[in-house]
Design a protein that fits this description.
The structure holds 2 protein chains of 2 kinds. By secondary structure, chain A is mainly β. Chain A is built from no helices and 11 strands. In chain B, the strands form 2 sheets. In chain B, strands 2, 4, 5, 6, 9, 10 and 11 form a 7-stranded mixed sheet that branches. Chain B is built from no helices and 11 strands. Classes of the chains: A mainly beta, B mainly beta. At the A-B interface, strand 5 of A face strand 4, strand 5 and strand 10 of B.
Amino acid sequence: QVQLVESGGGLVKPGGSLRLSCAASGFTFRDFYMVWIREAPGKGLQWVSFISSSGQTTYYADSVKGRFTISRDNAKNSLYLQLNNLRPEDSAVYYCASPPAPAANEYFRHWGQGTQVTVSS
Amino acid sequence: IQMTQSPSSLSASVGDRVVITCRASQNIRTYLNWYQQKPGKAPRLLIYDAYRLESGVPSRFSGSGSGTDFTLTISSLQPEDFATYYCQQSYRSPPLTFGGGTKVEVK
């Protein structure tokens, strides 16, 4: 069965950095685009970033553009999100998610359990 | 594309019929999806393409609508349905956008 497991979250000071990882299993990871979505307290769900199956195409929410970098290693079945110059408003639970099929429209059947990022001095 | 859900919260009893509305700021055809989220858990896909029931989701959940106006209906609320519900458009990205959520609470 599909499994997504995030790691790498933690407490960091404003301006600091973190690297989130998402280990995928149970499907042909290299065929699927992937996304990061976050949930901040009281703010609902927010799409953060997209990466194509090959890794050649990436997109970012305006609020993180220039600070966050999405990447993947298809040989390791892993997705990453590098978070730089973190701000308190980046505090959230970060989820990786995958679509139900490689060419499926952008809705998400599979989610990780989430990893908490807290930005505070 | 802005997604607006209403109400932001509601109180209901077991057995009640619950209707949640989602409005898009422009025509998104039927590219509308619904998720359920419980505290401390990842979102769960309920409905995709406005009305298609995700496998394993009880038939008391249904979705309807097209264009800009959509609804999620729970025909008879069950104890396990108390949660927050989000709509999400997949018509145009980036960015994908979600509604602000509707919290269904015990009356």
